[in-house]
Amino acid sequence: MANQEKLGVRVKAYRENLNMTLEELSLKSQVDVRTITKLESGELVPGMGALFRIAKAMGQRLGTFMDDQYEPDPIISRAEEPVDADGVKMMAHGKPDRNMDPYWIELDDKGTVRNMEFEGEFFMLVLEGEVELNYGEKREVLKKGDSAYFNALVKHNYRSIGGGKATIVGVHYMPM
Questions:
Q1: What gap in Å lies between CA 93 and CA 71, rounded to an integer?
Q2: What does the alpha-carbon distance between residue 167 and residue 106 come to, in Å, rounded to a whole number?
Q3: Is the pTM of this model over 0.70?
Q4: Is residue 73 part of a domain?
Q5: Residue 46: which CATH number?
Q6: Which domain covers residue 159, as residue numbers?
Q7: Cβ distance 98 to 92 under 8 Å?
Q8: What single string gives the DSSP state of each residue in 131-166?
Protein backbone atom coordinates (compact mmCIF):
# COMPACT_ATOMS: atom_id res chain seq x y z
CA MET A 1 0.00 0.00 0.00
CA ALA A 2 1.39 3.42 -0.98
CA ASN A 3 2.05 6.02 1.75
CA GLN A 4 -0.81 8.28 0.66
CA GLU A 5 -3.19 5.31 0.76
CA LYS A 6 -2.01 4.47 4.31
CA LEU A 7 -2.60 8.07 5.35
CA GLY A 8 -6.15 7.98 3.97
CA VAL A 9 -6.92 4.63 5.59
CA ARG A 10 -5.70 5.91 8.96
CA VAL A 11 -7.71 9.14 8.75
CA LYS A 12 -10.88 7.26 7.74
CA ALA A 13 -10.47 4.62 10.46
CA TYR A 14 -9.94 7.24 13.13
CA ARG A 15 -12.90 9.32 11.91
CA GLU A 16 -15.14 6.24 11.92
CA ASN A 17 -13.95 5.23 15.41
CA LEU A 18 -15.08 8.66 16.58
CA ASN A 19 -18.46 8.08 14.88
CA MET A 20 -17.83 11.30 12.97
CA THR A 21 -19.38 11.80 9.54
CA LEU A 22 -17.51 13.31 6.62
CA GLU A 23 -19.71 16.38 6.94
CA GLU A 24 -18.94 16.77 10.66
CA LEU A 25 -15.20 16.47 10.03
CA SER A 26 -15.46 18.96 7.18
CA LEU A 27 -17.32 21.48 9.32
CA LYS A 28 -14.99 21.08 12.30
CA SER A 29 -11.77 21.18 10.23
CA GLN A 30 -12.93 23.70 7.60
CA VAL A 31 -11.70 21.29 4.90
CA ASP A 32 -14.01 20.56 1.96
CA VAL A 33 -15.83 17.17 2.03
CA ARG A 34 -14.48 16.36 -1.47
CA THR A 35 -10.92 16.88 -0.25
CA ILE A 36 -11.46 14.63 2.78
CA THR A 37 -13.10 11.97 0.57
CA LYS A 38 -10.14 12.02 -1.82
CA LEU A 39 -7.73 11.88 1.13
CA GLU A 40 -9.50 8.87 2.63
CA SER A 41 -9.53 7.03 -0.72
CA GLY A 42 -5.80 7.65 -1.25
CA GLU A 43 -6.33 9.85 -4.33
CA LEU A 44 -4.96 13.04 -2.76
CA VAL A 45 -2.75 14.25 0.04
CA PRO A 46 -3.85 17.81 0.81
CA GLY A 47 -1.45 20.50 2.01
CA MET A 48 -0.05 20.58 5.53
CA GLY A 49 -2.51 23.26 6.65
CA ALA A 50 -5.49 21.07 5.76
CA LEU A 51 -3.88 18.02 7.35
CA PHE A 52 -3.23 19.99 10.57
CA ARG A 53 -6.88 21.09 10.69
CA ILE A 54 -8.14 17.53 10.07
CA ALA A 55 -5.91 16.13 12.82
CA LYS A 56 -6.93 18.90 15.22
CA ALA A 57 -10.62 18.33 14.46
CA MET A 58 -10.16 14.72 15.59
CA GLY A 59 -8.11 15.66 18.66
CA GLN A 60 -4.84 14.23 17.34
CA ARG A 61 -1.40 15.44 16.39
CA LEU A 62 -0.57 15.16 12.70
CA GLY A 63 2.03 12.44 13.30
CA THR A 64 -0.72 10.05 14.38
CA PHE A 65 -1.72 9.77 10.72
CA MET A 66 1.61 10.41 9.00
CA ASP A 67 3.92 7.86 10.64
CA ASP A 68 4.45 4.83 8.43
CA GLN A 69 6.59 2.70 10.68
CA TYR A 70 8.79 2.82 13.70
CA GLU A 71 12.45 3.65 13.11
CA PRO A 72 15.06 3.40 15.87
CA ASP A 73 16.67 6.62 17.08
CA PRO A 74 18.19 8.75 15.76
CA ILE A 75 15.73 9.75 13.06
CA ILE A 76 17.69 11.28 10.18
CA SER A 77 16.22 13.67 7.63
CA ARG A 78 18.44 14.05 4.57
CA ALA A 79 18.87 17.33 2.68
CA GLU A 80 18.16 15.64 -0.66
CA GLU A 81 14.72 14.43 0.45
CA PRO A 82 12.15 16.53 -1.46
CA VAL A 83 9.57 18.91 -0.06
CA ASP A 84 5.88 18.42 -0.91
CA ALA A 85 3.78 20.67 -3.19
CA ASP A 86 3.39 23.16 -0.31
CA GLY A 87 7.16 23.35 0.18
CA VAL A 88 7.08 21.28 3.40
CA LYS A 89 9.12 18.25 4.44
CA MET A 90 8.28 16.40 7.66
CA MET A 91 11.50 15.56 9.47
CA ALA A 92 10.43 12.95 12.04
CA HIS A 93 8.76 10.10 10.13
CA GLY A 94 9.02 6.82 11.97
CA LYS A 95 9.04 8.18 15.51
CA PRO A 96 5.50 7.65 16.79
CA ASP A 97 6.45 8.44 20.41
CA ARG A 98 7.66 11.96 19.63
CA ASN A 99 6.46 15.10 21.37
CA MET A 100 7.46 17.49 18.59
CA ASP A 101 6.87 17.62 14.83
CA PRO A 102 9.82 19.27 13.05
CA TYR A 103 9.42 20.60 9.48
CA TRP A 104 11.64 21.99 6.75
CA ILE A 105 9.60 24.73 5.04
CA GLU A 106 10.46 26.52 1.80
CA LEU A 107 8.41 29.69 1.36
CA ASP A 108 7.65 31.96 -1.54
CA ASP A 109 5.80 35.28 -1.36
CA LYS A 110 2.44 33.47 -1.28
CA GLY A 111 3.46 31.76 1.97
CA THR A 112 0.70 30.42 4.16
CA VAL A 113 -2.18 32.29 2.59
CA ARG A 114 -4.77 31.09 5.10
CA ASN A 115 -4.48 32.03 8.74
CA MET A 116 -3.59 28.97 10.77
CA GLU A 117 -4.42 28.14 14.33
CA PHE A 118 -3.80 24.82 16.01
CA GLU A 119 -3.16 23.48 19.48
CA GLY A 120 0.29 23.60 20.93
CA GLU A 121 3.31 25.79 20.42
CA PHE A 122 5.34 26.57 17.32
CA PHE A 123 9.00 27.51 16.94
CA MET A 124 10.46 28.78 13.68
CA LEU A 125 14.06 29.57 12.75
CA VAL A 126 14.83 31.45 9.53
CA LEU A 127 17.68 29.74 7.66
CA GLU A 128 17.55 31.81 4.49
CA GLY A 129 15.72 34.90 3.22
CA GLU A 130 13.30 37.20 5.01
CA VAL A 131 9.99 36.12 6.50
CA GLU A 132 6.95 38.17 7.43
CA LEU A 133 5.19 36.62 10.42
CA ASN A 134 1.66 37.81 11.12
CA TYR A 135 0.65 36.77 14.62
CA GLY A 136 -2.72 37.96 15.82
CA GLU A 137 -2.59 41.72 15.22
CA LYS A 138 1.22 41.83 15.21
CA ARG A 139 3.51 41.83 12.18
CA GLU A 140 7.16 40.90 12.54
CA VAL A 141 9.93 40.68 9.94
CA LEU A 142 12.41 37.88 10.60
CA LYS A 143 15.80 37.65 8.89
CA LYS A 144 18.35 34.86 8.60
CA GLY A 145 19.16 33.62 12.09
CA ASP A 146 16.03 35.15 13.68
CA SER A 147 13.48 32.92 15.37
CA ALA A 148 9.96 33.12 16.74
CA TYR A 149 8.30 31.00 19.39
CA PHE A 150 4.56 31.32 19.94
CA ASN A 151 1.24 29.87 21.02
CA ALA A 152 -0.13 28.28 17.84
CA LEU A 153 -3.75 28.80 18.93
CA VAL A 154 -3.39 32.45 17.98
CA LYS A 155 -4.17 33.03 14.30
CA HIS A 156 -0.95 33.30 12.35
CA ASN A 157 0.58 33.07 8.89
CA TYR A 158 3.95 33.67 7.33
CA ARG A 159 5.47 34.30 3.92
CA SER A 160 8.72 35.18 2.24
CA ILE A 161 9.27 38.89 1.58
CA GLY A 162 11.92 40.87 -0.23
CA GLY A 163 11.37 39.27 -3.64
CA GLY A 164 13.05 35.95 -2.95
CA LYS A 165 12.41 32.62 -1.35
CA ALA A 166 12.91 31.84 2.31
CA THR A 167 13.66 28.64 4.16
CA ILE A 168 12.68 27.98 7.76
CA VAL A 169 12.78 25.10 10.17
CA GLY A 170 9.55 24.91 12.12
CA VAL A 171 8.86 22.76 15.17
CA HIS A 172 5.33 22.11 16.39
CA TYR A 173 5.03 20.97 20.00
CA MET A 174 1.72 19.40 20.96
CA PRO A 175 1.29 18.79 24.70
CA MET A 176 -0.35 15.46 25.38
A1: 8
A2: 5
A3: no
A4: no
A5: 1.10.260.40
A6: 88-173
A7: yes
A8: EEEEETTEEEEE-TT-EEEEETTS-EEEEEETTS-E
